[in-house]
Specification:
The protein has about 230 residues and is mainly alpha-helical. It has twelve helices and no strands.
């Protein structure tokens, strides 16, 4: 029978987090160095959930040591490794390579320094609520839902979202702005996080983020029932 959510997370939860880091990235790790995706996973996990690294190392190694057969995969009794562009015969060696790099990082304390996110997975891991906001309210459906008025989209997010999540978004907006990205790189970051429309002219991406953060902060300082501008 298929794995229950609890059993899946117990046996493969952190392994799945490692695999998600490879979305859109090649499995280019070598015994000498981790690739882009694993480096991004290490950087984010060290600074947010360092205890999870030992779990990832164990789950990777156990999966490599006991790979599932085709029948058990078909029945859903095992986690299926996503397609990372490697031949099936090379997967076991690659999983051991990932486990070795994670173990080395934990045992030596070698931590990738803070940096601008380098992969799609790292952008979404670092800015989850911003990804929800941009992907949900600033998709290609914006003109159909809000008449091409981004202020209405921001107001709808604020009014329909728990205040704690709004506060989290404000913090993520300020964190992204603190990266001080040039406008072309800021535009790429917004696209990675799900934005499918351009910021309203004549604002640059950074200026628009400042404006959105300010609107949300102003609204959060007003008590319930107080009018908005």
């Amino acid at each position: 029978m298929p794995l229950s959510p609890l059993e899946h997370d117990r046996r493969y939860g952190e392994l799945d987090q490692v695999m998600r880091a490879y979305a859109g990235c090649p499995a280019d790790d070598t015994p000498e160095r981790p690739g882009r995706a694993l480096t991004a996973y290490l950087r984010h996990t060290w600074h947010t959930r360092p205890w999870a690294l030992a779990l990832a190392e164990r789950q990777l190694r156990e999966y490599a040591e006991h790979p599932p057969g085709r029948l058990r995969l078909r029945l859903g009794e095992f986690y299926a490794i996503p397609d990372v562009g490697l031949p099936e015969a090379d997967l076991q060696r690659w999983l051991y390579c990932l486990a070795d790099h994670i173990r080395h990082s934990v045992e030596t304390g070698e931590v990738p320094p803070p940096a601008v996110p380098d992969t799609h997975g790292e952008w979404h891991a670092r800015f989850p609520e911003l990804g929800q906001f941009l992907g949900g309210w600033f998709s290609q459906d914006l003109p159909d839902e809000f008449g091409d008025d981004p202020d209405l989209a921001v107001a709808d997010y604020r009014e329909s979202t728990d205040p704690q999540l709004v506060a989290r978004l404000i913090g993520e907006l300020r964190e992204l702005l603190a990266l001080d990205l040039p406008d072309p790189e800021c535009a790429l970051a917004l696209a990675e996080l799900g934005m499918e429309v351009d910021p309203p002219a004549p604002l640059t991406p950074g200026a628009w983020l400042h404006l959105v953060a300010g609107k949300l902060e102003d609204a959060s300082t007003r008590g319930p029932g107080q009018p908005t501008e």
